[in-house]
Amino acid sequence: MAPRLRTLGISVRGVRIDSGDLVALSRCVRRILDEGGLKDVTIFVSGGIEEETLSSFAREAAPIDGIGIGTSLATSSDVPALDCAYKLQEYAGVARRKRSVGKATWPGRKQVWRRYDAEGLMASDVLSTEDDSQEGEALIGLVLQEGHPVAHQPSLQDIRAHARTQVERLPRGFERLQTGSIYPVHVAARLQQLAAAVDLRMT
Fold first, then answer.
1. pLDDT at residue 5 tops 70
2. 26, 102, 115, 192: which has the highest count of C-beta atoms within 10 A?
3. Burial of 195 (0-12, 13-18, 19+ CB in 10 A)
């Protein structure tokens, strides 16, 4: 059909596949196109694509030129809800914490410092009290105060650049979908001491 359309001045620029085994079908379509002298025609795929699908495309070197991601870009079907709760850590200037078994929290206002290795990759984090001083880059900053924004509002371009930089600085192996590695996070002595003091006060 494409060669006949070309004689009429109509150029077929791409083929879309939106269901079935996308890797196998893309190879089949690519072979048909190439044998027909249509090596410049691209293959575009869509239909329920998510991160595991993308990984299979790369792993199997599928001849796919374009990818359309819809539902999985806007939703998280594997983790549809974020189970979290607010825990009081300080009240009237006094450090507090929850001590339930398996749900204990670290008290007071805190800061996280991130350390990097010689290659500039993330090496470990240290959690401590806000007034402590640790080696590394402080990650927590004031954003809202008394209901008003106090921090610089980055542009979408700035946010995108920051996200790209953080991904590039992940330790080796952590950029994969599946990893057995555990990122090291340490609790500083000062925070442990504060927790002990809170426990003593609450007994």
1. no
2. 26
3. buried
